[in-house]
Amino acid sequence: MATQRVLPQSKETLLQNYNKRLKDDIRSILDNFTEIIKTAKIEDETQVSRATQAEQDHYEMHVRAANIVRAGESLMKLVSDLKQFLILNDFPSVNDAISLQNQQLRTLQEECDKKLTSLRDEIAIDLYELEEEYYSSRYK
């Protein structure tokens, strides 16, 4: 299981695309959050009135918050895509899991067979003793 598997070119490209999407979305969240924090700082006097500046900052924060939400939704879609990729393309892991379960069930079967054989032998001995007692008694 620790060995590295070679993926076909299309799968490798798809995984690189997933990695790029992940980095882009995280960068977008970080950049927008940083800009929201910068916008929240109150600046000294500027040429624009405070009300106008406040409205502009408010609008910018809304846009950046929407960008953060979009990037978060994109990350959720990426997680969904990765799960689907894993389910559809990870046959070695599925085969390993099936083999492991098969081996566990065979071990359980062998244990049950041993217990049943032991139980059969004990019952045979007890039955033999009971038959011997019955046939040697005067009630037969």
Automatic annotation (TrEMBL):
The record's Gene Ontology biological-process terms are: regulation of transcription by RNA polymerase II
Q: Which organism is it from?
A: Seriola lalandi dorsalis
Where would you say this protein principally sits, based on its record?
nucleus
Q: Which GO cellular component terms, listed alphabetically, does the Swiss-Prot or TrEMBL entry include?
A: mediator complex
Q: List the keywords (alphabetical).
A: Nucleus, Transcription, Transcription regulation
**UniProt protein name:** Mediator of RNA polymerase II transcription subunit 22
Q: Name the Gene Ontology molecular function terms of this record.
A: transcription coregulator activity
* Keyword check for Transcription regulation: yes
**Listed InterPro entries:** Med22 (IPR009332)
List the subcellular locations: Nucleus
The UniProt function text for this chain reads: Component of the Mediator complex, a coactivator involved in the regulated transcription of nearly all RNA polymerase II-dependent genes. Mediator functions as a bridge to convey information from gene-specific regulatory proteins to the basal RNA polymerase II transcription machinery. Mediator is recruited to promoters by direct interactions with regulatory proteins and serves as a scaffold for the assembly of a functional preinitiation complex with RNA polymerase II and the general transcription factors.
